Amino acid sequence: MIRSTPSIPIPRTVPLLPLHDKVLLPGVVTRLQISRRDSIPLFEKILRTYDRKELHKCIIGVFPVHPLPKPVASVANKAEDGDDNDNDDEDSDTGSGNSNSGSGRKGAKAAGYRKKKTGVYSDDDIVVVGSSTGQVVPMRPGQSSQSTATVLSPASIHTMGCAARLVRLERAVGGFTVMLEGIVRLRLNKILTQVPFFEAEVTPLPDKPIGKSDQQLQDYIVALKSTSKEFVSLLQVLKLPAPVLTQLQKFLENVGLIPGQVVDLLMSTIESTHEEKIMILDATDLKDRIPKAVELLTRQIHVLKISQKVHDNVEGKLNKKQREFYLRQQMAAIKEELANLPAEVQKAADRELKRLKKMQPASSEYSVIRNYLDWLGDLPWTKSSEDILDVERARKQLNDDHHGLEKVKRRILEYLAVTKLQQMKGEVKGPIICLVGPPGVGKTSLGRSIAAAMGRKFHRISLGGVWDESEIRGHRRTYVGALPGLVIHGLKKCEVNNPVFLLEQNHTFTDHYLNVPFDLSKILFIATANSVDTIPAPLLDRMELITIPGYTFAEKLAIATNHLLPKQIRLHGLIEEDVKVTEQALLKVATGYTRESGVRQLEREIGSLVRAKAVEYAEVQERRLLNRPTTTTDSQGTPPAHNRRLEYQPLVAVDDVEEILGQEKYVNEVTERLPTPGVVTGMAYNGVGGGILFIEVSQMPGKGHLQLTGSLGDVIKESAQIALSWVKSHGYEIGLTNSQGQNIMEKADVHIHMPGGGTPKDGPSAGIAMVCALVSMFSNQTVPAATALTGEFTLRGLVMPVGGIKEKVIAAHRAAVRKIIMPLRNRKDVVSDVPLNVRDEIEFSYASTIWDVLKEAFEGRVVVRAGTPAANGGLDSRM
Ligand SMILES: Nc1ncnc2c1ncn2[C@@H]1O[C@H](COP(=O)(O)OP(=O)(O)OP(=O)(O)O)[C@@H](O)[C@H]1O
């Protein structure tokens, strides 16, 4: 990067670029604005002659120009102004061929330049040029290297200059912008032409190699080394741009090798007069150049030191005053924010405030405490919203927002009434409400209605995916980036201390971050859960459980008609008259496009229906306006039916549903399924609602092994084993074997599979269904597809009650099951929980023993052998 001798060949004749207020030195890259008449033609020619890629081959002689003599009066004025373009006693020794720098210097001295005010460069003054050499050049903002003044006289061109190559050349307003890199000093021998630009014969004067034995020169170099080191260290203090410093430092490492270039570069970074710069340019001999440079550097160091002192003083004073003022303001603001805190919190806040006052605002601890105090100040410690505990109003709100759910609504109203009474007496509230039910059954919207009815703010804290307690309780402040947890975040957002939260309650809740207690007793917490299975028993015990089972199709239809459809119509910018969906159509959407306990998917599908109608409505309006036929066509080129209409038709009939929503997504597996030996319909219930599931059994040659598949849990596997054992031991009684001791699985293996292998299944409630599936397979008799079974089964043949009856029954009803066999002890659940319309459409058979089950399931097709204990209807006494 750093060359000690120019590697670029310099031609004998070069075009001249006269520089009026600048001096280019070798090794320096500079940017110039060319706008003078004496230079523009040169660059026009270069642009015409050189290809862009070859610009760097163009070598130019860059020569300083001495100012022309000026009238006396003007000189006087200028002198007063302190302008450095003083009178010029020109050195006209242009063709002297004098390689001695003395003549140029003489000329410069004779010109009587006055020294500029010296000072410190600001960042703006230095232009870092990202050139091949990456060296630096000072250039003042807005400074033009050439003014558009006087006509140039050959006599004013200095005898020493610098060969430069073009790094960049661009057209600019009024001329060119060029970037030049100085290569080597040039002596001007003779000006050859002047029009359209100057050309001259020149001699390159590279620095001579440094003789090791030249003690005087070595001494100079040592002096240069230490001075430049000091200079650069001062520049560091003054915060010069980092790239400039790095370049300088790199360069200085080579002082010993190329002292000449280092001097040239340093000279371009310090404040010096035009005269001084010419002096350095003229100094072709290093023994001449280095001492001059050391002198100039020393002066610059002195100036830098003084200005640094001044700078420090001013800054220090200002900073101290400003900081104090700023801090006072900040403290006052914080104090104001922290007014009205509870006593204990106030104590903590005061303690932190005291610490804050002693800290540097720039320290990281300062911002941590500041943040903490902001949190304390932002929380609604004492601010509550006014409660409306009007039971009648709440009833109306709940009824307006939700169809059905009578039991749930009644329970909520009771809760509110009790809360009201307790508040009047100043007592503590009862337990938290926990709404349990499958997704989309309205738990969240019930919570929202409760908040609206009570005139409270509503905030939902979603705990999905929260594994870490600190997400709820916050992180201790000792952690980097610590913040309060979800509860405190929610309170800040609500801006009152008594919102409705969907979560758990705790009196003296202490967030780890705040580390001071916040009384959460005013918050009405409502918890929601899809299933109670995952809630720890002690917590469950403290909550008021309100279960919302899945909806029947009838309920879904009512919810869709009264709530979902009107809501979607509103959301799509239409009015109720614009979309009329028939009951049949809505039912088809519910049965053919959704399979869920709640109504979320139903709402989405209704949304799609309404959207399609909205588009149709808009198109008809548009067509009417423009009176033009439709343009929308399908892949066959015919417009879809609803698009061909000239009048908008608000009605969506059952036949339109498929056209808009596409093919039905769900077919009814129960009605579609043919009764098959070995396959029985079971009933399932999990967190996301009820459903039916099939139990498939088959046998194959083997040695009496049982194989179970379908993501089965331990309990359900045990049920299968119990069922098989029972069937094996009662094979003779139900006519599966011909003799008492015969083993039906002597030469066979049995495989029990429950389809839907992706869904884990567990629990004992498939017991009786498994027995029926096995009996069906071994006897080759079928259980009707529309008959479903649920019930636990013991080895002795007893049928035990199971959970989730309401959800199971509703789901089975949705799946077109028309007969359900279940434990006798579950009868009460059917009577109390299952809606009447469902009960009316399903035949219930209650069983207390497996014999009852077999009788009902096979409708008499499996006959109990006469003379066996079972024939008398009794339980197996042998077990
Ligand atoms: N009985 C109902 N009457 C009117 N709208 C209902 C009813 N049940 C549910 N909805 C509507 O169904 C949508 C879904 O309900 P919501 O978001 O409250 O379900 P969720 O039970 O909280 O579900 P998740 O367990 O997934 O959070 C809402 O738009 C809600 O208004």
UniProtKB/TrEMBL annotation:
Region: Disordered; residue ranges are 75-114, 625-644
**UniProt cross-references to Pfam families, sorted A to Z:** AAA, Lon_C, Lon_lid, LON_substr_bdg
Q: Which UniProt keywords apply?
A: ATP-binding, Hydrolase, Nucleotide-binding, Peroxisome, Protease, Serine protease
* Annotated Lon N-terminal domain residues: 14-301
Q: Which residues form the Lon proteolytic domain?
A: 674-860
The biological processes this protein is annotated with in GO are: protein catabolic process; proteolysis
What does the record give as the active site? S765, K808
- What are the binding positions for ATP in this chain? G437, P438, P439, G440, V441, G442, K443, T444
Q: Which InterPro entries does the entry mention? A: AAA+_ATPase, ATPase_AAA_core, Lon_bac/euk-typ, Lon_lid, Lon_proteolytic, Lon_Prtase, Lon_prtase_N, Lon_prtase_N_sf
Locate the compositionally biased regions of type Acidic residues.
81-93
Q: Where is the composition biased (Low complexity)?
A: 94-103
- EC? 3.4.21.-
Q: Which GO terms describe its molecular function?
A: ATP binding; ATP hydrolysis activity; ATP-dependent peptidase activity; serine-type endopeptidase activity
The UniProt regions of compositional bias labelled Polar residues, in chain numbering, are 628-638
| Superkingdom to which the source organism belongs | Eukaryota
What name goes with this protein? Lon protease homolog
Q: Which organism is it from?
A: Mortierella alpina
